[in-house]
Write a structure and sequence with these properties.
Helix content: 40-55%
Pfam family, one: PadR
InterPro entries: Metal_resp_DNA-bind_regulator, Tscrpt_reg_PadR_N, WH-like_DNA-bd_sf, WH_DNA-bd_sf
CATH architecture: Orthogonal Bundle
Distance between the termini: 24 Å
Organism: Deinococcus reticulitermitis
Strand content: 5-15%
Protein name: Transcriptional regulator PadR-like family protein
Number of domains: 1
């Protein structure tokens, strides 16, 4: 059963779906959606709890990169399927279909 699909949760899911075969990090999703961190991160947790998103840590040496590792997010197959369904419903509102 999918999580409660508020407009904000849908925005996060669709932002992840824009480039679903690549990893996204939180700040990137904040910029894409225009939402605040107090909205995006709880939405990611809900999506992950329902098996629609998975997270993992970036594999870098923080000392070499000069920054901390990022927590990366990616849609699961179920997340991609739900995003396609949602985009199909919103096509009339200017949201394109996933490739």
């Amino acid at each position: 059963m999918p999580p409660r699909m508020t407009p904000q949760t849908i925005a996060v899911l669709l932002a992840l779906a824009q480039d679903f075969d690549h990893d996204h990090y939180g700040f990137d999703l904040l910029r894409q959606t225009g939402l605040q961190s107090g909205t995006v991160y709880p939405a990611l947790i809900r999506l992950e709890t329902h098996g629609l998103v998975r997270h993992f840590w970036e594999e870098i040496d923080p000392t070499q990169a000069g920054r901390p590792r990022r927590r990366l997010y990616r849609l699961t197959a179920s997340g991609i399927e739900l995003a396609r369904q949602l985009q199909g419903r919103q096509t009339g509102q200017g949201v394109g279909a996933l490739a």
